[in-house]
Q: What sequence folds into this?
């Protein structure tokens, strides 16, 4: 049902979020760059820079644990490394408690499913310690200094690039960080280029989306509000990559947001002008409930037929936790783009 309270919204759309040589870790001063130096092949140590300084490895980690399920494990797998441990999927999981795109890639690699642990209340430090990983990878998430310090007591940590906010690391950021940690920079670059090409080809195949303005978010029928994602959110980034443009109202007011979304009162929705509004829900009745709502129906995109309500939680997860794997799955295995194109032509 679209009548979702704030706690559920945050849980569902934020975080649902190994044998090898032990790698030594040091933490230094912050740096705005996010790269690694040296080559593992040379036998020299190398560093990966991130939001909390830099992490030095004496050898490429072989046994990697993930903190925050969104994007992080997908990218490791896409670079040929099966994570030893990942958080359990608590929203939008398939029947196996995983995701279709992760499972398909895992089968392709012939890998064994990772150990899973629950991060509902934050990192499971005990489970992570029991894994005895060579490294902990968490380039996407909302890690704090306190959490980082605790994790470094277990293993070297690679976090988001410096200057990237909570839940704001793009899939490109995550791929770049993973490539640096694994010393697979060329493979990371190739993965980014491959995904960019797929997105460009998809945009070309859906010309009705070009330059269409959009709002992406969630309607709360109880609170009579729309929680709209800002430009740095994964859903907005994906739609923008298809040639669409974030609605001016969101662009102009996002500076007031201290997170990945902007709460808009129902009374203000007539001012939120866009061609399309993409919203996620949990019931097939959500679309009609939004259209018949006195306040929501006054939003221009809703009134003009530009409303797209996605009730398949697996698709919602794929776009929310957008990674090269989930993007390819969304484009090739679902009707998500067809729904958007139809709305754009309304």
A:
């Amino acid at each position: 049902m679209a009548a979702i309270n704030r706690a559920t919204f945050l849980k569902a759309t934020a975080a649902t979020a190994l044998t090898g040589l032990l790698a030594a870790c040091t933490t230094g001063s912050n740096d705005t760059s996010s790269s690694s130096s040296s080559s593992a092949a040379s036998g020299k140590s190398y560093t990966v820079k991130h939001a909390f300084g830099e992490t030095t490895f004496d050898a490429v980690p072989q046994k990697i644990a993930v903190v925050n399920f969104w994007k992080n494990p997908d990218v490791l797998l896409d670079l040929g490394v099966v994570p030893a441990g990942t958080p359990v999927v608590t929203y939008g999981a398939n029947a196996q408690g995983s995701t279709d795109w992760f499972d398909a890639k895992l089968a392709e690699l012939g890998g064994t499913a990772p150990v899973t642990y629950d991060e509902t209340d934050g990192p499971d430090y005990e489970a992570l310690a029991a894994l005895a990983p060579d490294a902990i990878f968490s380039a996407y998430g909302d890690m704090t200094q306190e959490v980082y310090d605790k994790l470094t007591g277990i293993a070297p940590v690679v976090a988001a690039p410096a200057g990237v906010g909570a839940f704001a690391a793009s899939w490109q950021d995550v791929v770049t960080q993973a490539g640096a940690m694994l010393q697979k920079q060329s493979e990371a670059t190739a993965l980014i280029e491959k995904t960019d090409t797929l997105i460009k080809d998809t945009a070309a195949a859906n010309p009705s989306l070009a330059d269409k303005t959009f709002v992406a978010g969630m309607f709360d029928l109880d609170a009579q509000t729309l929680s709209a994602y800002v430009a740095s959110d994964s859903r907005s980034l994906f739609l923008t990559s298809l040639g669409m443009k974030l609605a001016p109202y969101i662009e102009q007011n996002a500076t007031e947001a201290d997170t990945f979304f902007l709460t808009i009162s129902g009374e203000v929705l007539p001012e939120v002008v866009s061609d399309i509004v993409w919203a996620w829900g949990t019931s097939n009745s959500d679309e009609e409930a939004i259209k018949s709502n006195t306040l929501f129906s006054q939003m221009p995109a809703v009134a003009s037929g530009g409303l797209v309500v996605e009730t398949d939680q697996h698709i919602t997860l794929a776009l929310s936790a957008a990674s090269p794997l989930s993007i390819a799955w969304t484009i090739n295995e679902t009707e998500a783009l067809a729904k958007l194109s139809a709305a754009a032509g309304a």
